[in-house]
């Protein structure tokens, strides 16, 4: 044996141990953190122009309230404690300046328009109670106010049209518990096991059958988590039209398919054994079947999204920059998320894109359900923008923005993280081609888009509002519906109006309709509306005249008037319809942006209905009208409580005016029919419940602008596709081998409730 062999073996073993130790240590070492950059920055340079659209700051809201308190000559009660007979401030929001003024400022070097607020006040303590709207300015130090109610609506707004305040709901709840329920103690104790705490009420709207009515059905549910699907069979109608709370009265009662004059009659019938009782099993406090608590323990973590070199967008106050895109954003108290001055490659393509209304029309064989037509703008889509949960509502690393509102209060409230902005890799190519004919190459581009999102929880429903910006110049507006399904008590012929989803729970049929305002400015303010489609034509084959062929051809039509541009909900609409500019692209075509709607709406309420004019925007899948300052919205917050004499009737916007070479607005309606089913328990999912629209360049550019994206990938068979300079994807193991700098998880959604 070689005497040096043991030493060689020892040295070799030591080297192996050293190498293994290094490998183990390196595997346990934390990867470096990814690069990051500030997300929300102060306004600098030209981006400060976007502040002309900015929501009011809390300081501005406070100044408006102080001004109103000191200059109206009336006592203003805090709306949180107001009685119907009091004066109070219902809301304060920004008054966006007239478009002409804004464009002079943005494009013509004109003066910045004065900053103003719009205040909605309830005057119940007056000989003729009414709702009045004031424009207050200039901010931040108000010195004037103007009553714009008559200018906007053609007259005073009657007091009965006012949206209900939280204080009125509280007063109605107290009335039900202390006055109405006091008349039926035996029934309530023996049938509902009522103890003063174990039921809750959900109101319906509109409140009656004719102008001036304020009679609301209140559906009684078990007071448990997810109460919306726990009806007990009792519904009570209260007449609260009087401004004197002591004069409120029960006008009708419904229980398990039978109607009664009032609670006393129900009590008497029950004591005499003349009530058909359907005893509902008491649900646990967590709701049992309606609980959102997961039924399975946590397991492997779901995939996460992160930005290895930091976010590729910037947020400066209300202004966003992303690649070739720029826009301003805001949050209206009544209508929610809205965008202004949307530009691609520096050129404005839209002046405003905003949500207008969310309507739901219910069917049922119970009075509350069958009379429900919710117009969520009246309750406040923006007001109910909810705090977003990192990693679930939006990607964990998204930029979260706080918003502020002054609604039913004398002081502003902060809605923490109620809006998020993020870039999302959609997991598919925006475009690609693999060539294996004649030349061998691959070319592709990842479909990465910027998303702006808010989620509004209005009662039982949660609406996920998105605007997406794609690298090819397209914009998408999308809404996804989730939350709890509303329900009725299952009795009689209930299955004509939905599906049974639990023992006594009927998931009631309903339609959802969402309206958007899209003020496109394609190549300038003045546009025309053009329709392209197809038709088959018969022809003889030129090389073989005895043979006949059918070939598709392009059809073209300019839509000259508003009547021609109003497409009823279920009617056939041209498949290519676009706003055309007065300029042409390199190939001689009018530059345009196409409107493409994604919708599977149910039927619209018949026009013969006494309340249809209040929701007449929902007649149309698309209507294009001349833009007018006096037609800023397709509906009104006052339409909910008086749909029989609507304050704003969209149908009046369409009066056959010419729309050729004019400033135009597209009013888009997307919707879906929802027939609840057992899989809506405990909660409705977003899958399959997404509708909206796309705005797509149509000959607007000379070629696809995404070809200039830095994200493009291209290599041929003759290139080294593993080289970073040829193929950026080959560098991912190096450029993306970092751990994201995720901030600590926080949530402020349960504070200041």
From TrEMBL:
Domain Copper amine oxidase N3-terminal, chain residue ranges per copy: 162-257
Name all Copper amine oxidase catalytic domain ranges.
305-707
Which residue positions are annotated as catalytic? Answer: 376, 461
Query: Which terms under GO biological process does the entry name?
Result: amine metabolic process
Organism domain of life: Eukaryota
Gene Ontology terms: cellular component: plasma membrane
Has UniProt tagged this entry with the keyword Oxidoreductase?
Answer: yes
What's the name of the protein? Amine oxidase
What gene does this protein come from? Aoc3_0
